[in-house]
């Protein structure tokens, strides 16, 4: 593994050096008779060094500050959005809760009203029943009374009728004691009195 | 650039150094190569300064380019070097990548000199990387760093041979890194010069030469596109290899 990593650059360098060596005679790059070939390197080193100094002290920190600014702004905005979302979610949950509460309250009110109406109706029916019962009882008592008075009148009517009939038939008034007992037994036989 | 009026193609003349910035530059041996380095450096600084000037939350085109460059190299550093110390080397890798990238790309423009086509320049860059990597390795691990040259799990008898190979391969990084960049850039520009000369020479032949001259122009058009790819790729390769070497120095294997 280690070998294959280095064989390629070595091979490449070797291959590239071949034409370079062949051309070396006429190559201006390797013309050391002129001082410019090496003086450009000295100047180049100064220029490169200066560029490195300027970029590392001013240029690159400038870019870094802008990128950092953007990154902080984006993260801040994201945080704000996250907070806004959570508050919106909380508001939503609150609204849901309020709706549920209102629904429950209205349901309770409906139930209460329904119960009130039911109990009122029941109470009304109760009083009506009581009144009707009373009327019924009154009517029954009246009937009983009427019946009793009618029954008590029947002995007198029977006595008078029997007296009248016996008087017409015999010409004399019947014995009151016997008549009364005969009527009593006759009434008792019919279940009256 | 083409050798007009003669039948020989001067493909190497474009790499000739000459002093720039007039008499003052000439007196301090300041070359056109260095002028291009300054232009490249100004290009990098311009990209960052003008790009980041708006400091916009939603970046425009230039700011996006600057940020993308920053984040690409930062990603390269953190992923390839790894570890908490990788950010320390980020400015160096960034400077290296963009210095080479701008040098390569500016070289594709006509009449512009390509300073990365000079092996002395790329050698200086690779030597800088090499020295940095070695320094970092020794600073991080002390003498233990030298075990880097002893591969694990090899027979004792083979150790001297393997250590020799490892040291040679370690040293050859200087050559491979510099020659890879220099040869790529030089080869591309030689090709461009050769086909550019073909256009002029064949076009001068009259009616018969127009078709091959047009063909050469087509080839050169393709080569320009290819050069843009190579320019970017070689800058990337230089930077990623630097990161890999730094990884080895920081982590030892």
Distinctive features:
heterodimer; A: 193 residues; mainly alpha; rod-shaped; B: 253 residues; globular; disordered N terminus
Brief account:
The complex is a heterodimer of chains A (193) and B (253). By secondary structure, chain A is mainly alpha-helical.
Q: If you had to describe this structure to a student in words, what would you say it looks like?
A:
- The complex is a heterodimer of chains A (193) and B (253).
- Chain A is rod-shaped.
- Among the domains of chain A are: 7-86, no CATH class; 145-189, no CATH class.
- With 193 residues, chain A is mainly alpha-helical.
- Chain A contains 3 helices and no strands.
- Chain B is an all-alpha fold and 253 residues long.
- Chain B has one domain (13-251).
- Chain B is 71% helix and 0% strand.
- The longest helix of chain B has 45 residues, at 159-203.
- The model of chain B is unreliable at 1-6 (pLDDT under 50).
- Chains A and B meet through helix 1 and helix 2 of A and helix 2, helix 3, helix 4, helix 5 and helix 6 of B.
